[in-house]
Specification:
The chain has 300 residues and is of the alpha+beta class. It has helices at 12-18, 32-45, 62-71, 92-97, 175-186, 189-201, 212-238, 250-259, 273-283; strands spanning 52-55, 74-78, 84-85, 90-91, 103-110, 116-130, 143-152, 163-168. The protein folds into 2 domains: 12-187, Transposase Inhibitor Protein From Tn5, Chain A, domain 1 (Alpha-Beta Complex), CATH 3.90.350; 193-283, no CATH class. Helix 2 runs parallel beside helix 3 (62-71) and helix 7 (212-238) crosses helix 9.
């Protein structure tokens, strides 16, 4: 994690209207933190070639693409900017508009009412020679990147059409590989869940401490706690029959057995990780009925 605060809070929106952000050095921008993350995470793991950095539209930064090439690491980012392509006489959007779909991909999403809806996406991809912003063409080289577009085939009447536009430096040579990258990007939502646990569960935004140092220490503890809630919840779904010691100590298992005694209905159930995750959830009000879905992050 990086802790920082702005030097200026008011007038930043007006400042953006007076300057061309593409001509401002990346080192002076708040978005420079994305480049720092690229370096630091690769250094911590020690094998940047094994990393795939997945980011939302805020990560659509040309300097990040160049740094990833320099570090020999990979990225998969949702597109925000329509960049110049080829010789500079057209854009990426124009190229992708003429690219025919190569596959149909069926996904399930939730509408505004929380109901599951099945939609069909037309998928297309293409490797494109991309140019840096005009004001930075002397500093950064052109790159060959692969763009992946997935768009809902039919326009729904009750919501916005599903449309994803992604860019990556990973090899994409088939429709299967393009769909694989779509499924990878879908995992980005997990970071939103992690932040929700921090904000709603730990109530990180409500804390009031005297010093910044104390706030940093508390948020560090909240990060570990939020990650643990997230990890235990997901692990119990991915491997429900795994030994409970994967996430709990033997003492914690004994305490849960004491707090939530077994009933006649679950005495024959496998006593795996999911069994004890349900016991934790029951402390938070989870009813554990036969047709209830696995406990979620809120109850945990």
């Amino acid at each position: 994690m990086k802790f920082w605060t702005r030097d200026k809070f008011r007038g930043t929106a007006a400042l953006k209207r007076k300057i061309n952000p593409t001509r401002v050095p990346i080192e002076t921008k708040e978005s420079y933190r994305w480049l720092e993350n690229l370096r630091q995470s690769g250094a911590l793991i020690g094998e940047p070639g094994r990393c795939v950095h997945i980011g939302d539209r805020e990560s659509d930064i040309y300097e990040l693409f160049c740094l990833a090439s320099e570090l020999r690491t990979s990225f998969l980012v949702r597109v925000q900017t329509d960049r110049l392509a080829g010789a500079g006489d057209h854009t990426v959007a124009a190229v992708m508009a003429n690219e025919p779909p190569c596959a149909a991909h069926v996904v399930e999403i939730c509408n505004d009412k929380g109901d599951a809806v099945t939609v069909t996406l037309d998928v297309k991809f293409r490797a494109i020679h991309v140019l840096p912003p005009i004001g930075k063409q002397k500093r950064y080289p052109p790159l060959t990147l692969t763009y992946i577009h997935a768009r809902e085939r039919d326009q729904p009447t009750d919501r916005d059409r599903v449309e994803w536009r992604l860019v990556t430096n990973l090899p994409v040579r088939s429709a299967e590989q393009a769909i694989e990258k779509l499924s990878w990007y879908a995992l980005r939502w997990k970071i939103e869940v992690f932040h929700k646990i921090m904000k709603s569960g730990c109530r990180a935004e409500e804390v009031k401490l005297r010093t910044a140092e104390r706030l940093v220490n508390l948020l560090a503890v909240f990060c570990i706690l939020s990650w643990r809630v997230f990890w235990v919840t997901m692990s119990s779904r991915a491997a429900p029959e795994a030994p409970p010691e994967l996430a709990l100590t033997s003492l914690e298992v004994k305490i849960l057995d004491r707090l939530i005694p077994d009933t006649l209905s679950n005495q024959g159930s496998p006593r795996g990780l999911a069994f004890y995750t349900n016991k934790i959830a029951r402390l938070g009000g989870y009813l554990n009925r036969t047709r209830d879905p696995p406990p979620g992050y809120i109850v945990m």
